[in-house]
Amino acid sequence: MARAGVTVERLTVAAAELADEVGMRNVTVAALARQFGVKDASLYFHLRNAQDLRVRVALLALAELADRVAAALAGRAGKDALVAFANAYRDYAREHPGRYDAMQIDLDPETAATSAGVRHAEMTRAILRGYRLSEPDQTDAVRMMHSTFHGFVSLERTGGFRHTPRPTDDSWSRTLDALDAVLTHWPSR
Amino acid sequence: MARAGVTVERLTVAAAELADEVGMRNVTVAALARQFGVKDASLYFHLRNAQDLRVRVALLALAELADRVAAALAGRAGKDALVAFANAYRDYAREHPGRYDAMQIDLDPETAATSAGVRHAEMTRAILRGYRLSEPDQTDAVRMMHSTFHGFVSLERTGGFRHTPRPTDDSWSRTLDALDAVLTHWPSR
DNA sequence: GGGAGTAGCCTAGCTCGCCTAGGCAAACGA
DNA sequence: TCGTTTGCCTAGGCGAGCTAGGCTACTCCC
Lengths: 189, 189
Known about the structure:
- The structure is a homodimer.
- Chain A is an all-alpha fold.
- Helix content of chain A is about 70%, strand content about 0%.
- Chain A contains 9 helices and no strands.
- In chain A, helix 1 (about 10-20) packs across helix 3 (about 50-75), helix 3 runs antiparallel to helix 4 and helix 3 (about 50-75) packs across helix 5 (about 95-105).
- At the A-B interface, helix 6, helix 7, helix 8 and helix 9 of A face helix 7, helix 8, helix 9 and helix 10 of B.
- Chain A binds a DNA duplex through helix 2.
């Protein structure tokens, strides 16, 4: 019988696309096997288990997002860089809701250390260079920034802002203004 | 055969407790039935389906959190109120990780409208009264606040802050300082 | 207090997803 | 050309979600 040409890479990409279409919850080994015209059991030759697949999607998404952010940041500094980073982040989450969901799974420390998450951390710190913050304020600011981005994006997606008519784009832009303001005048102890 | 005395209320509470212990993903109709010494099929007399159960847990959690926040806010204003709100929110999420997870599920508009989510919205606006913000700044500020809280809490839980040694409690407290500062001096257009 | 009705539980049985064991054939390398 | 490996298969177990249909314990009403 002809071989379907299944590889881990193709599986991961297909899973990511499927996730964006039908949500991460509905990305199953069985559904993926159907797409490849193969029995579900056959995929366990390429994957350790279903969780393995999810982790691979998460790592793919992290790397893709890091690339986007890096491209957006090129040649920018200060508020310009902050806004570029933020928009790259939010746009990615909106274009790829399934991949974004996958990114939220809890990676074990070793996997996380070798993932593109490290690049994200570096780029975030790079932005703060324009705001002249020294430790530990820098760490706190990084955490606040990341919290704001992630919180806004995920609340926007799950409908947490739906009860007020104001366009979320406007709130987003004003939130970035506010973030820039507070990074510029970071309160001292 | 003796009746087990199952009610929707008891099921919901048991599901919430189970969620905090083993995570929302592992809250199954079957597991719940085992706890009540009953067959899984019997629970469908009380529940429409598994999703119905999750929604009930979410509504329970929303109501509980609203109660806590209301108690924390009593008699406070300004930054005092902001910090009380924030800590009530974060403490609840940490004490009840499963319930907090449940809260994130996407409620349909009608359900959301009659849920305790409305009380949350009102209380959040109440805090901002101390900061003298008028619309649409108020809405933007509410959204930023909520984003920061939710983002911080969920990143803290999924280990997003783990790569830096600084205690998250410290970053949290400084983030609240920063939030207070930016609410006090909300940037004009 | 003796039915009638209903509420609360049951068994049986289906589908689907996850995963293992063991087999067979296609591709490849020596 | 002939193993060896690689890629896919079938068979089958487990657990979760859910439906259909039946039996029993309780309630209430005459």
